[in-house]
Design brief:
Blueprint: H1 14-21, E1 45-47, H2 58-66, H3 79-91, E2 98-101, H4 104-118, E3 121-126, H5 133-139, E4 144-148, H6 157-163, E5 168-174, H7 186-196, E6 201-205, H8 221-226, E7 230-235, E8 248-252, H9 254-263, H10 270-281, H11 283-306, E9 318-322, H12 327-335, E10 339-341, E11 351-355, H13 359-374
Parallel strand pairs: 1-10, 3-4, 3-5, 5-6, 6-7
Antiparallel strand pairs: 2-8, 7-8, 9-11
The structure holds pyridoxal-5'-phosphate (PLP).
């Protein structure tokens, strides 16, 4: 029989809280680990937007506070150049092959704009991340060719190749994919990128790169250095918790980056750049977030295994599991307990995308789900 779920049961001890605060700024409010917080439908625990529940890294937060004194200087008084150099050295590529943006979404949107100006269709797996690039392409009236994922819910590169037509201008690939946190293996993807980039732009979105644990996965950044038509993006929004601060990167040959740059209209804010410089140097914080994400996923896997529920072993900060009933109904009933989960993703409307919050929050979710749907 399910116990009554009282918020108090889910408060964790002060030692654990202090452990977390060694690294992070403790800014997040929507977690059962925060004393005094009560999950409600109006102020739910956020398991719907693939955010980092630990908030900004302390070093980044401090750097941003200090950066206020440079607020009057364009581009943070040269800090943007420092950030680009830092990322270039971490990825072992020349600085001219790195493009800085206000969140990777800015580059995604600009690529859609590029297609709309130069003409042609876009080819993408289905489902995939349909905000930014795919959404903007739609708004610009670009024809989108969708290729269903395979039986393992992974992107089907053979089917994508077969669906290619001469009027495709760009192929969008998310690796790991979203909302399905599956990955394409490096050898096969490399081969695909080399072949298809002779015909059109191949865009590999690596927003969840840092979370990947599949040993057969690899970044396509080195390949993008060698081939004109390949572009890769990364974001500070996930492991670095910059979703609201906005920092992202593009990687590619100078020709394609210059084309994208010529269409970009955003501007980077100085404090965000100073924060990113601190965050990308703080490996300890990144390891902390990645470790906690694994713990949170494990809480979910144990629960799904206990109830024989089909799910994806994730390579990101979210996973996908079978509800067996309309996910809209699940969302409504879960929200009553103060948890917001992912929207429907067709054609998998009896599955649910759930983003990881802290492990204690995931435990709270499993209790709620068990009580609401399984007992
Ligand atoms: C696959 C993917 N790409 C890009 C983005 C955009 O991220 P941002 O604009 O915050 O860098 C997201 C956001 O969730 C995403 O899931």
């Amino acid at each position: 029989m399910a116990r009554d779920i009282s918020r108090r049961e889910w408060l964790i001890g002060t030692t654990a809280i202090a452990g977390g605060l060694l690294f992070n700024s403790g800014a997040t409010a929507q977690s059962v680990t925060i004393e005094g917080y009560v999950p409600t439908a109006e102020n739910p625990i956020r398991m719907m937007a693939n955010e980092n529940p630990y908030g900004l890294n302390k070093a980044a937060s401090n750097a941003m506070h200090k950066a206020h004194k440079y607020g009057h200087l364009y581009g943070g008084g040269g800090a943007s150049v420092e950030l680009i150099k830092l990322i270039a050295s971490q990825e072992k590529v020349p600085a001219e092959n790195v493009l800085l943006s206000g969140g990777s979404g800015e580059i995604l949107n600009t690529l859609a704009l590029l297609v709309s100006i130069e003409g042609g269709k876009v080819l993408a797996p289905y489902p995939t991340y349909d905000d930014n690039f795919m959404d903007y392409a739609n708004r610009r009236g670009i024809e989108r060719i969708w290729v269903p994922v395979d039986d393992n819910m992974a992107i089907d590169l053979d089917a994508m190749k077969a669906a290619y037509t001469d009027d495709v201008k760009l192929i969008y690939l998310c690796n790991p994919n979203n909302p399905l946190p599956t990955v394409m293996h490096a050898d096969k993807l490399r081969e695909f990128c080399i072949e298809m980039s002779k015909k059109c732009i191949v865009f590999v979105d690596e927003a969840y790169y840092e979370y990947v644990s599949d040993p057969l996965y690899d970044t396509m950044i080195p390949l993008a250095m060698e081939h004109e038509n390949i572009i890769v993006t990364r974001t500070a929004s996930k492991v670095h918790a910059f979703a609201g601060i906005r920092i992202g990167f593009g990687f590619g040959r100078k020709t394609i980056l210059d084309k994208v740059r010529s269409l970009m209209t955003g501007s980077i804010n100085g404090p965000a750049v100073f924060g990113a410089i601190a965050s990308y140097q703080d490996k300890k914080y990144q390891d902390f977030v990645i470790g906690k994400n694994k713990e949170s996923l494990q809480v979910l896997y144990d629960f799904f295994d206990k109830h024989n529920m089909r799910h994806i072993k994730s390579n990101a900060n979210f996973t996908f599991f079978e509800t067996g009933i309309d996910v809209q109904e699940v969302r409504k009933r879960i929200l009553k307990h103060g948890i917001a989960i992912g929207r429907p993703f067709e054609p998998f409307t009896k599955w649910c995308r759930i983003s990881t919050s802290k492990p204690e929050d995931m435990k709270y979710f499993t209790e709620v789900y068990e009580k609401e749907f399984l007992i």
